[in-house]
Design goal:
The complex is a heterodimer.
Chain A (H helix, E strand, L loop, with lengths): L1 H13 L2 H19 L4 H9 L8 H26 L8 H12 L3 H35 L3 H15 L7 H16 L1 E3 L4 E3 L13 H19 L15 H9 L3 H16 L4 H15 L12 H16 L1 H7 L5 H12 L8 H4 L1 H31 L5 H20 L2 H19 L5 H23 L11 H15 L2 H13 L1
Antiparallel strand pairs in A: 1-2
Helix pairs in contact in A: 1-17, 2-4, 2-17, 3-4, 3-15, 4-5, 4-6, 4-17, 5-6, 5-13, 6-10, 6-11, 6-13, 6-14, 6-17, 7-12, 7-20, 7-21, 8-20, 9-18, 9-19, 11-12, 11-13, 12-13, 18-19
Chain B lengths: L2 H15 L16 E5 L6 H15 L7 E5 L6 H9 L6 E5 L2 H9 L9 E9 L2 E5 L7 H10 L6 E5 L4 H13 L4 E5 L2 H9 L5 E2 L3 H9 L3 E6 L34 E7 L5 H15 L2 H9 L7 E2 H22 L5
Helix pairs in contact in B: 4-11
The chains are: A mainly alpha, B alpha/beta.
């Protein structure tokens, strides 16, 4: 019960009027950062970091971590309203969130997203509170082959997601891998497919592709369909929150599964983005009405949001205990810790208990405050869809352009975003699914490095992927996931030919 | 987002950016926010130092304008270097360097060279230490090297940051001493590399001190030797029994390797001497802060400061050394 005492002490540190004020300020700033696509939590915190050096240490940490929560919450808003993911881990939220908004249920989608975020983060904080040392040890077991097995599992749990022909899925996935391969090859240290163009050195950033494919592509479609938002009819209902909560209770199984996926991916550290995709894939597998996914199923919002937040929060655990940041935002926070003279690592919990438990307490409080702040704004966000498209359309394009620019401060990226936008439009017209492309683009790089690192370690022998129970179990699970969709088809075939 | 919200957001960012807009004008001073380019990803050694400097500058109000850290890691840092090379005459852009200043153009053929930029100052030199897992049986560098020599090639695995960069160059130097090749496995960042060793997935690393310090203190890693001619001067105990100063040099352990990494500042080409002087002075002030002293000790840096001709001569010499080492290892771009 030592943890509980330390935690209560942490609460007493965090719960002053002064610090609560910083929490609200941090959350609000964070939401704004999350809403602007591309600006992202990492950039936002980096910009605001110097601001906190003149504050006392605890308040500074509380404000920074609240910006982090705020950005996590805010990422869902543009995904649902405009099909523009503000953060990479919100991509999976667009699959069902945006159709919901088009049906006039933006309020419900937002409530589901925010509530799930809170649930995911809350359970992850519980994990950090009570299991930190244990979990940190588990994270150490993950070498290159284990990482590859996790990425394999993500791909496999996503296979069969699309209703489009498998050949189309394969084609766009291959395109995603090709785009991911552009730039520096980290294993040989040479450049690939840059054709001597300095702009291509940094490869295709996932965020720019996503902003273009989803955001700009969607705007082009809307323009074609007569400059009107489909969700225009949305009524402002102030009790939408309570109504959605009733519905959410039905998805408790999905929530639990997504929390587990998220915590696990955050700790290992696979990251929030693969976690959200994996949870979405699993939710669809487990659901009775699979076909309603992608057409506006609230469960399809619950799963990725819960997992992304559980992962985003538990990503702080490897940072505190091992000094490896689980996400870019965590990396910037790490820089902040160093300036305050705190060296993250296995001894941080013993050397600076005040700081660690103050931070953990602020995770509980920050999320609670954050949930309250975002839920009160749900009707207002939903009301944005009532603004005429001719007004909001150009604003969205500007926000997209700023977002694409801020990723690398490069104008070339804005042009790339427009090119991706045209492709997004064409792909939608030709009924090519975009999700596999995005998945391949975001995971392709990581999966390739892990695979090749494993091959170097084993001197080219594939047996490294079943060398120990952990990696073998993960691989077996992947293949099970891969073959699962064939089972019903096989049954069907046998029944037909058995007679 | 509403228009109002967007403007509020922008106003806010502007307000934050303009904090600290005071100061007396004398000689040249930045007239707008200074971009501090890091040619590496977030969380690595160069990034940590840049963000630390940003913090020190903000805390002690050393600059009237804000210093903004921007990561441009594409193409092993080529993205960042090319940007500074292209910003001719722009005094509001500075870049922190690591060894990729020399290795990236040599290994990839991307057209840039340190002479394309204006050398500012050397801030410090970063050390390299040979680390093994604390549970490994090797107590000294000699134990380890002897075992590498005794076993067949590729038995031992070395994890390092990036490919054909400093860590792999050092590995090639060790290979030359032992006559047995180690398998080099590249990872993205120094933090990842250290954790791979803690987890027992590889046999050794050549992490910079700051990347592995926490694990050493936590009893997970063991330093065998340091790749410099002299031992480190920091005598404060890091673990119960050892300080940085207790780590023997690799030379004394029969592995004659000396390699240090530049942590320095460059400006865009075509800036005036007055502008260079401004930044050299700024970093002198940074180096006088107590935070800097603490940072140097924690990361066990070699505190050498150079600027002007002395720095340029050092750069020329170090570039030639990298060319030689990389040619020998077969890392040069064809």
């Amino acid at each position: 019960m030592e943890e509980l005492n330390s935690l209560l002490h942490g609460f007493s540190v965090a719960l002053t009027f002064h610090n609560l004020g910083f929490m609200v300020l941090g959350i609000t700033l964070g939401i704004l950062i999350g809403v602007l696509p591309g600006l992202g939590g990492a950039n936002g915190i980096a910009i605001l970091l110097p601001l906190t050096f003149s504050m006392d240490q605890t308040s500074a940490i509380i404000m920074l971590s609240c910006i982090y929560w705020g950005a996590l919450f805010g990422g869902a808003i543009t995904s649902i309203l405009f099909n523009i993911p503000g953060e990479p881990w919100s991509v999976a939220t667009t699959f069902d969130g945006f159709p919901l908004a088009q049906q006039g249920r933006a309020g419900a989608a937002l409530t589901a997203a925010f509530t799930s975020s809170f649930v995911g983060a809350f359970f992850a904080v519980l994990l950090i509170t009570f299991l930190a040392p244990l979990v940190a040890k588990f994270a150490l077991k993950f070498g290159a082959p284990e990482m590859f097995a996790v990425q394999m599992l993500t791909f496999c749990s996503f296979v069969g997601m699309s209703k489009e022909p498998p050949a189309k899925t394969l084609a766009v996935m291959a395109l995603g891998f090709a785009l991911a391969a552009v730039g520096m090859d980290t294993v040989t240290g040479t450049l690939r497919m840059t054709f001597g163009q300095p702009e291509l050195l940094k490869g295709f950033d996932f965020l720019i592709a996503v902003i273009g494919l989803f955001g700009i592509g969607e705007i082009l479609l809307t323009m074609e369909e007569g400059l009107a938002f489909k969700g225009k009819s949305a009524k402002i209902q102030l009790n939408v929150v309570l109504q959605t909560w009733k519905e959410l209770l039905r998805y408790w199984k999905t929530s639990i599964r997504s929390v587990l996926v998220g915590c696990w991916m955050g700790v290992t550290p696979g990251g929030a983005t693969p976690a959200s995709f994996m949870a979405y894939g699993l939710a669809r597998r487990g659901a009775k009405d699979k076909d309603s996914f992608g057409k506006g199923n609230v469960e399809g919002v619950v799963a990725p949001e819960t997992a992304a937040h559980a992962a985003g929060t538990s990503a702080l655990l490897p940072m505190l205990t091992l000094g490896i940041p689980g996400s870019p935002t965590a990396a910037v926070l790490l820089g902040g810790l160093l300036i305050w003279g705190l060296q993250p690592g296995p001894l941080l919990f013993q050397e600076k208990p005040d700081f660690v438990w103050g931070l953990i307490a602020s995770m509980y409080l920050g999320n609670l405050v954050g949930l309250f702040v975002v839920l009160t704004t749900v009707p207002w966000w939903a009301a944005i869809l009532r603004i005429p498209f001719s007004v909001i359309g150009p604003v969205i394009i500007v926000i997209c352009a700023i977002g694409a620019y801020t990723v690398h401060n490069s104008l070339f990226d804005v042009i790339m975003m427009l090119v991706f936008g045209v492709f997004g439009y064409l792909f939608k017209k030709l009924r090519y699914p975009l999700a596999p492309l995005v998945l391949a683009l975001v995971l392709g790089d990581m999966a390739e490095s892990s695979f090749r690192q494993s091959m170097l370690l084993s001197q080219g022998s594939l047996s490294i992927f079943w060398a120990n129970p952990l990696v073998a179990g993960l691989m077996a699970l992947s293949f099970l996931m891969l073959l699962w969709p064939i089972v019903p088809a096989l049954k069907h075939y046998l029944r037909k030919h058995g007679n | 987002m509403t228009k109002l919200g967007k403007w509020a957001g922008r106003a806010l960012v502007t307000a934050i950016a303009s904090i600290g807009l005071t100061g007396v004008a004398q000689a040249w001073e930045p007239t707008k926010p200074v971009e501090f380019v890091v040619p590496a990803g977030t969380g690595g050694g160069a990034d940590q130092m840049a963000r630390f400097i940003q913090g020190v500058v903000a805390k002690h109000k050393l600059m009237a304008q804000p210093l903004v850290v921007v990561n441009k890691s594409g193409g092993a840092g080529a993205e960042g270097f090319l940007e500074v090379k292209g910003a001719k005459g722009d005094p509001h852009k500075i870049i922190i360097t690591l060894s990729n200043l020399f290795t990236t153009p040599l290994a990839t053929g991307v057209p840039f060279n340190w002479r394309d930029m204006t050398p500012g100052a050397m801030l410090a030199l970063d050390q390299f230490v040979l680390w093994v897992n604390a549970e490994a049986p090797y107590k000294t560098a000699k134990d380890y090297i002897d075992d590498v020599k005794a076993k067949p090639a590729n038995t031992f695995k070395m994890a390092g940051t990036g490919s054909k960069q400093e860590d792999q160059i050092i590995t090639a130097m060790i290979d030359k001493v032992t006559g047995k090749k180690m398998t080099y496995v590249p990872f993205k960042g120094g933090g990842d590399v250290a954790v791979q060793l803690v987890g027992g997935h590889v046999n050794s690393t050549v992490n910079n001190p700051i990347e592995a310090e926490a694990h050493w203190r936590g009893g997970k890693l063991r330093p065998l030797c340091i790749m410099d001619n002299d031992k480190l001067p920091y005598t404060a105990k890091v673990t119960d029994s050892q300080s940085w100063a207790d780590i023997p040099t690799c030379k004394s352990a029969g592995v004659p390797i000396e390699y240090l990494m530049l942590r320095g500042i460059f400006l865009a080409p075509g800036v005036t001497q007055e502008q260079v002087d401004y930044y050299v002075n700024l970093f002198k002030k940074v180096r006088e802060t107590p935070e800097w002293a603490e940072f140097m000790q924690k990361g066990a840096f070699k505190q050498t400061f150079m600027s002007g001709k002395e720095f340029a001569d050092w750069l020329g010499k170090t570039e030639a050394m990298h060319y030689g080492l990389m040619k020998e290892a077969g890392f040069l771009a064809k």
